[in-house]
Structure formats: C-alpha cells, structure tokens
C-alpha cells in the first residue's frame, strides 16, 4: 500500500511541477483546428459514400 501512496504522490508532484501545460488560448486554437479538420474529413467521407452508393446502384440496375 505504501508503494501506491508513493506513486500517487510522485505522480502528482511531477504533474504540477515538471509538466508544462499549454495556455488556454493555445488549447482553444488547437480545438478549433481539430474541429475544422474533423468536419472536412467527415464531408469528404460523406461525398465518397454518396458517390459509391450511386455508382453501385447504377451498376446493379444495369443487370436487372
């Protein structure tokens, strides 16, 4: 049990003193970048899915 307590204390000490945390403005700009990139990626995948669906419908209707 003492090893666990020592681990938690050391972890807390390292997280508060040795880790450099980004500023709120940096986090905000990174979050916006991730949001925009995710939306663009979702749009591209949606367009590809729509095109593939229509291509497959045309292909299958050609053999009916």
TrEMBL record:
Top-rank lineage group of the source organism: Bacteria
InterPro entries named among the record's database cross-references: SecE_bac, SecE_sf, Translocase_SecE/Sec61-g
Cell compartment(s), UniProt: Cell membrane; Membrane
Gene3D superfamilies: Preprotein translocase secy subunit (1.20.5.1030)
Keywords of the record: Cell membrane, Membrane, Protein transport, Translocation, Transmembrane, Transmembrane helix, Transport
Pfam family, one: SecE
TM segment ranges: 32-52
Keyword Cell membrane assigned: yes
Membrane topology according to the record: Single-pass membrane protein
Matching HAMAP family: SecE
Family statement drawn from the similarity comment of this UniProt entry: Belongs to the SecE/SEC61-gamma family.
Function: Essential subunit of the Sec protein translocation channel SecYEG. Clamps together the 2 halves of SecY. May contact the channel plug during translocation.
Name of the protein in question: Protein translocase subunit SecE
Native organism: Splendidivirga corallicola
